UniProtKB/TrEMBL annotation, chain A:
CDD domains according to UniProt: STAS_anti-anti-sigma_factors
Protein name per Swiss-Prot or TrEMBL: Putative phospholipid ABC transporter permease protein MlaE
Domain STAS intervals: 6-94
GO molecular function: phospholipid transporter activity
Topology of the protein relative to the lipid bilayer: Multi-pass membrane protein
Annotated organism of origin: Roseivivax jejudonensis
Listed transmembrane segments: 165-185, 216-237, 258-289, 309-329, 350-371
Family to which the UniProt record says this protein belongs: Belongs to the MlaE permease family.
Gene Ontology CC: one annotated term: ATP-binding cassette (ABC) transporter complex
Subcellular location: Cell inner membrane
Keywords for the protein's UniProt record, in alphabetical order: Cell inner membrane, Cell membrane, Membrane, Transmembrane, Transmembrane helix
Gene behind this protein: mlaE
Chief subcellular location: membrane
Pfam families cross-referenced by the UniProt entry: MlaE, STAS_2
NCBIfam families found in the cross-reference section: MlaE family lipid ABC transporter permease subunit
UniProtKB/TrEMBL annotation, chain B:
Keywords annotated in UniProt: ATP-binding, Nucleotide-binding, Transport
GO MF term set: ATP binding; ATP hydrolysis activity
Domain of life, source organism: Bacteria
Domain ABC transporter: 6-243
Keyword field contains Transport: yes
CDD domains (alphabetical): ABC_Org_Solvent_Resistant (cd03261)
Name of the protein in its database record: Putative ABC transporter ATP-binding protein
Organism, as annotated: Roseivivax jejudonensis
Listed InterPro entries: AAA+_ATPase (IPR003593), ABC_transporter-like_ATP-bd (IPR003439), ABC_transporter-like_CS (IPR017871), P-loop_NTPase (IPR027417)
């Protein structure tokens, strides 16, 4: 190519300054061109001579148009001369397209605005809570209707979700609880050995796993696995307007989608917690045997004698409540998904965080409650 | 004779055992607006993606602006990317950036361009694509489908490419919006001297915008020519396409078959 870089030549004539532009007025040349042209004085009328311009694109045309506008506003005016027909047409297109109103810069946020922001977030959190309650009510109502009118109930979906929620979660839940049992036994042993009270490690493991950790950690794992899966499945249906299609076909999303999922959780979470309890005790028992020489029969005896069955009941009472929390949060987040993929991702991670947080809060409430009534 | 800017010779593309193109030839000359039509699944979008270097063909030679595609070195790739622009079907805007930031992305490769000037150029392109001046601050999710397409066009044009590739620019637009888009493409093509490679189904767009039409069928370019020449082609699909009831309705008044 024989094209040359952009060049500027200033010639003083008697009445005006002649500004000769030549070469390429293209995007790559624009940074240098813009710097050079910003130094052109506005004291005299200027003629912008484009007769030797070889190539011009919109970026070049923009710089020329802006120079003309600046000179017209500040000084004695400017005139474009010698543009080829194609360049003149381009200049005209660009000048016509220049945005009329400059976008207003974002206003700085004052203290009042910040306070209002805090208020809005609090109100938003309140609305979020109300929506969750709304979803809980809907699911309970549909569950009740399923009992009254069992023919509407979708058994196949329930079985499918039981498998996805329950059966497939067994390995991870069991492994997690087994490891927690090992950790508890090991930590308990090193501490209790200082008092010669090694045998109480059995009580430690049994009470903490049966009463708290078994069900809580199972719920946290299930919240991570299942709340996200619910949100992703319902959210992608919402995104593709499948839920709207269901409504127009007279199908109720509550009965079709939410009830089988939540019911599957309600049935499966206690079973998973039971498995976690067993795995935790086995893990703890093995560790106690290896580290403290507490043989399995002795462990069993101590377990039956020293641990009240109430601990086990208290642990499992919480499971359906946690299941309901996880299901409601997952379904609700799915329904909050809007038409785009980002909101699906955002809601999925929000569902996991909300579900885990709500489960822990509920567990704390249970602890206080049980302490108050003294069991 | 105008300079050839895109040349495709003996192109073969296949996905697994499904052959999409088999010995496809096509040439596009500088400054023309070429419309590529074909039935669903004839590989129109695949052809576009192959020419811009997103698909690797099984065989055949592609040259864009005298350079081999797909490029073999990073330098070749960089040299080519600055000179072509692509508008994807739904705009393919970066969802985490505002429209203005989207349009600024291709401008960031220009060394020494001041942020203020980059912003101005982005606003200019947004306005040239027919979006209101305040659209620049919005996120893609806040825009309608038609506006997203316009924003996609603004981004494709941001760095003043020599060739723009448009994938179904009017699909999903209402007739008024589609007609405006046709005028926009024609106007930009004329005033910027663009070469446009346009994949479409829209007969109105073909009439309003395209200098030449290439028909994809039977895994190759069956025929190329002006819209008027298409009427004389004796091939069942071409006849159905250009002389069917919808084609007759789209033909401009006075344009006799």
């Amino acid at each position: 190519m024989t094209e040359t870089a952009a060049q500027i030549e200033t010639v003083a004539e008697d009445a005006a300054t002649r500004l000769c532009l030549s070469g390429r007025l293209t995007l790559a040349e624009v940074p240098a061109l813009d710097r050079a042209l910003s130094r052109v004085g506005a004291e005299r009328p200027v003629t912008i001579d484009l007769s030797r311009v070889e190539r011009m694109d919109t970026a070049g045309a923009h710089v020329v148009t802006r120079l003309e506008a600046r000179l017209a506003a500040e000084g004695k005016g400017a005139r474009i001369a010698g543009a080829s027909p194609a360049h003149a047409a381009l200049l005209e297109t660009v000048a016509a397209a220049e945005p009329a109103a400059a976008p207003a810069p974002a206003a700085r946020r004052g203290a009042a605005e910040r306070l209002a922001g805090v208020g809005r977030r609090v109100a938003g959190a309140g609305r979020f809570g109300a929506e969750l309650l709304d979803m809980l009510g809907l699911i309970l109502a549909r569950l009740a209707r399923g009992i009254v009118r069992p023919r509407e109930f979708r058994l196949t979906a329930l079985v499918h979700h039981c498998e996805a929620v329950g059966v497939q979660a067994v390995p991870i839940v069991a492994l997690m609880a087994f490891l927690i049992g090992i950790v508890l036994a090991f930590q308990g042993a090193t501490q209790l050995r200082q008092f010669g009270a090694e045998v109480f490690v059995v009580d430690l493991i049994a009470i903490s796993i049966l009463r708290e950790l078994g069900v809580l950690l199972t719920s946290i794992i299930v919240a991570g696995r299942t709340a996200s899966a619910f949100t992703a499945a319902i959210g992608s249906m919402k995104m593709r307007e499948e839920i709207d299609a269901m409504r127009t076909l007279g199908l109720d999303p509550g009965t079709m989608l939410f009830v089988p999922r939540v019911l599957a959780l309600l049935l499966m979470l206690p079973i998973l917690a039971l498995i976690a309890n067993a795995a935790g005790l086995v893990g703890g028992g093995i560790m106690a045997w290896l580290v403290l020489d507490i043989s399995p029969p002795m462990f069993l005896t101590r377990l039956v004698e020293g641990t009240d069955v109430a601990n086990y009941v208290i642990g499992l009472i919480k499971a359906p409540v946690f299941a309901l929390i996880i299901g409601v949060v997952g379904c609700h987040a799915g329904m909050r998904v809007r038409g785009n993929a980002e909101s699906l991702g955002r809601q999925t991670s929000a569902a996991v965080v909300t579900a885990i947080f709500a489960v822990i809060v509920a567990d704390a409430v249970f602890s206080v409650l049980f302490a108050e009534i003294g069991i | 004779m105008a300079e050839t800017v895109i040349s495709v010779r003996g192109l073969v593309t296949a996905f697994g055992r499904q052959v999409v193109h088999d010995g496809l030839d096509l040439e596009v000359t500088r400054g023309e607006i070429l419309g590529v039509v074909g039935g669903s699944g004839t590989g129109k979008s695949v052809l576009l993606r192959t020419i811009v270097g997103l698909n690797r063909p099984q065989a055949g030679e592609i040259e864009v602006l005298g350079r081999r595609v797909p490029p073999r070195t990073e330098a070749e790739r960089a040299a080519l990317e600055g000179r072509i622009g692509v508008m994807f079907q739904d705009g393919a805007l970066f969802s985490s950036l505002t429209v203005r930031e989207n349009v600024e992305v291709p401008l960031r490769r220009v060394t020494g361009l001041a942020p203020r000037l980059r912003r101005e150029l982005a606003d200019l392109k947004i306005s040239m694509a027919g979006l209101p001046w305040d659209a620049g601050g919005k996120y893609p999710s806040e825009l309608s489908g038609g506006m997203r397409k316009r924003a996609g066009l603004a981004r494709a044009l941001a760095h003043d490419p020599e060739i723009v590739f448009l994938d179904e620019p009017t699909a999903g637009l209402d007739p008024i919006g589609a007609a405006e888009f046709d005028r926009l493409i024609r106007g930009l093509g004329d005033s910027l001297g663009l070469t446009v490679f346009l994949v479409t189904h829209d007969l109105d767009t073909l009439h309003a915008v395209c200098d030449r039409v290439a028909v994809l069928a039977e895994r190759r370019v069956l025929v190329t020519g002006t819209m008027r020449e298409m009427l004389d082609v004796d091939h069942p699909w071409v006849r159905d396409y250009f002389q069917g009831p919808r084609a007759r309705a789209a033909r401009p008044a006075g344009g006799q078959g």
